[in-house]
Design goal:
Layout: H1 2-18, H2 23-32, H3 39-46, H4 54-63, H5 75-121, H6 126-132, H7 135-171, H8 177-184
Helix pairs in contact: 2-3, 5-7
InterPro entries: Cro/C1-type_HTH, Lambda_DNA-bd_dom_sf
Organism: Nesterenkonia natronophila
GO molecular function: DNA binding
Length: 185
């Protein structure tokens, strides 16, 4: 049982840190809920020196914005869970960057297109302009478009396939989420 108390304590400490609460804050909030907790109590629970009671666990879980099941998760599983949460967070960040980048690229393209259309409407001889625009200016734009195409065609798809394979190794998922749900029923 002592090993379970250590796991619970490690998880309480990890979950407390995840919501950026200090031990004293947890102690205060638990005291407000009618439990006789001090900072020393929080420390003792986190070190596995004091067992966490079920009624305390239910209130503490709400306080730490989690479920009571997270308290009894073995350390090996916590590493995987943390890695998946970190990966999810970074994927969301990357998605935001990709989305923002594509919006920026589209805006840049629309500016260039609008400028060309305005010039045509004004009767500007684009062939004459083309002769005086340095070729490296157009080349830089084409290079930027090629980089976007590279990520769109190969880089992102390759990354997603590799990520899905890694997830499958961890979770035993073969790409069909419903299949594992059906087997459980």
């Amino acid at each position: 049982m002592k090993q379970m108390d250590k796991w619970i304590g490690q998880n309480v400490e990890r979950l407390r840190a995840a919501v950026e609460m200090k031990q004293a804050e947890v102690a205060f909030e638990m005291s407000e809920q009618g439990f006789k907790w001090s900072q020393r109590t929080v420390w003792a629970v986190e070190k596995g020196e004091r067992p966490l009671r079920l009624a305390e666990a239910q209130v503490l879980a709400k306080l730490l914005r989690t479920g009571t099941g997270q308290f009894v998760t073995p350390p090996e599983a916590v590493k995987v869970v943390n890695a998946v949460f970190d990966a999810e967070r970074l994927c969301k960040k990357a998605l935001g960057a990709i989305s923002g980048g594509l919006e920026d690229a589209n805006a840049a393209h629309m500016i260039a297109r609008s400028t060309l259309m305005d010039m045509e409407e004004e009767g500007v001889d684009l062939d004459a302009v083309r002769d005086v625009v340095p070729s490296n200016v157009v080349g830089r734009y084409e290079h930027a478009l090629d980089r976007i195409r590279h990520y769109d065609q190969g880089g992102i798809a390759t990354f997603l396939n590799e990520a899905q394979q890694d997830f499958a190794r961890i979770h035993g998922w073969d790409g069909n989420r419903n299949q594992s749900d059906e087997q459980e029923n």
